[in-house]
Amino acid sequence: MEFNRHSGNYVDRSFSNFDRQGKKTIIVDGCSMAGEFLGPISDTQDKKERDRYEGGDIGINLSERFGFNHVGLNFPAKSNCSIFRDTTNFLLNECGDGKFSYENLLLVVSWTGLARYSYFNREKMGWEIYHLWKSDEKKDDYKLHPGKNMDYHSIIEEYMNRFLYQISVANLCENLGVNYIMYNGCDDIKSYQDMGQGSYPLTQKIKNYFKYKTPDTNVYDDFDDLYEVLLTKNFLDIPCSGYFGYETGRYKMDKDRLKKYTFDGLHLNKLGHQKWAKVLEDFIIEKGMGDFIK
After folding, report:
1. Phi, psi (5° rounding) for residue 207?
2. So what's the pLDDT on residue 159?
3. Considering just the CA atoms, what is the radius of gyration of the chain in Å?
């Protein structure tokens, strides 16, 4: 059985149809990198073309592979703040006595990039997603945060926050006895080390900003320390996008892999989702949870 429903930047948390106590459940949170491609597919396309565009879903693939229930908290354009909020709320409020059993859970978190984040709209009394890049399009999906500048300060703040979100969720799982793994969906965790080496102007601004700071203010040292802590957790140090050929941090562009495993140069097609599910299964076994998924 599976569940995946959301509205805006909220996840509907009505789980009345689940066998919460008796069956193992996989919980997946993240952005579109973890989910299914829902774009148009024409009936006139041949099978090879359809297979290239048809996507998959990390939670569905793994739940079917392991015979688990599936709860999908992920949805397109989700921010790391939203991922952290929904995952934490789920573990603390939907699990425990009379609810989902902690010992029967497997949490998979696909952390997203740094260009989107959450902002609480007081007029609408709800969370909304904003982006750090400017766009000529007049779509709500691409509006800028009304109270922040689109500059290196915002990017650095989101980089630090993501480290703290990741370590906090890992610590919470370990304290509750929840099986978990996590990884970055569309950004190398160490990409801060390469900021400014590409042609993207915003990363060059970030690099220049720290270039003229004194050593005792170099936040990169903090990132290095947090990275070492994260490596002690069940964190797969392979970004999904980089694995399939997208240029990010330590990973260089591989057009052949992108064509084979993605439908748009970033999001996974059906074959990419199948391959990534095997990568995650191997990591789950590597981290000592092989008996749990049998």
Report:
1. -60, -45
2. 85
3. 19
Superfamily of domain 2-293: SGNH hydrolase (3.40.50.1110)
Distance CA 167, CA 20 (A): 27
Strand partners, 248: 251
- Assign 74 to helix, strand or coil: coil
Domain boundaries, the chain: 2-293
Taking the C-alpha atoms of residue 191 and residue 110, their distance in angstroms, rounded to an integer, is 16
Residue range 237-270, pLDDT digits in tens: 999 999 999 998 889 999 999 999 998 899 998 8
Q: What is the DSSP string of 218-269?
A: -THHHHHHHHHHHTTSSEE-S-HHHHTT--BTTB---HHHHHHHBSSSSSB-
Q: Of 148, 132, 275, 110, nearest to 203 (Cα)?
A: 132
Amino acid at 170: A
| DSSP for 169-213, written as a single string | HHHHHHHHT-EEEEEESSS-TTGGGGTTSSS-HHHHHHHHHHHTS
Report the C-alpha gap between 142 and 204 in whole angstroms.
Answer: 22
Phi, psi of 235 (to 5 degrees): -105, 120
Residue 112 contacts residue 29 (beta carbons within 8 Å):
no
